[in-house]
Amino acid sequence: MTISYDDFAKIDIRVGTIIAVDPFPEARKPAYKLTVDFGGDIGTRRSSAQITTLYPAESLIGRQILAVVNFPSKRIGPFTSEVLCLGVPDAEGAVVLVGPDRAVPNGGQLY
């Protein structure tokens, strides 16, 4: 399916820095609860992320990632996920996070 640029422009993808990682034992698949700082008007938001295979919790603090910030919140068990962190699967299907290859200001928009 082909979409227009106007369709793409409706998706608000921003860069943020992971500032906290908590276990999420209630999740059906292994996951973390992430707190991500998007700076400015967006502030901090929380997300559930199934990234435990490739990322020990302590390796995520300070990492910049890209996330969709304008989807509605999604309830995942007892947790409300406010943003969708972006990633792609590796050859074995584990999620590899998407982020800038150098430090950029939090809140920067992908376009």
From TrEMBL:
Gene Ontology molecular-function annotations: tRNA binding
InterPro entries: CsaA (IPR008231), NA-bd_OB-fold (IPR012340), tRNA-bd_dom (IPR002547), Tyrosine-tRNA_ligase_regulator (IPR051270)
PANTHER family: TRNA-AMINOACYLATION COFACTOR ARC1 FAMILY MEMBER, TRNA-BINDING DOMAIN-CONTAINING PROTEIN
Domain of life: Bacteria
Occurrences of domain TRNA-binding (ranges): 7-111
Keyword Glycosyltransferase part of the UniProt annotation: no
Species assigned in the record: Azospirillum cavernae
A Pfam family annotated for this UniProt entry: tRNA_bind
CDD domains reported for this sequence: tRNA_bind_CsaA
Keyword set, alphabetical order: RNA-binding, tRNA-binding
Name of the featured protein: tRNA-binding protein
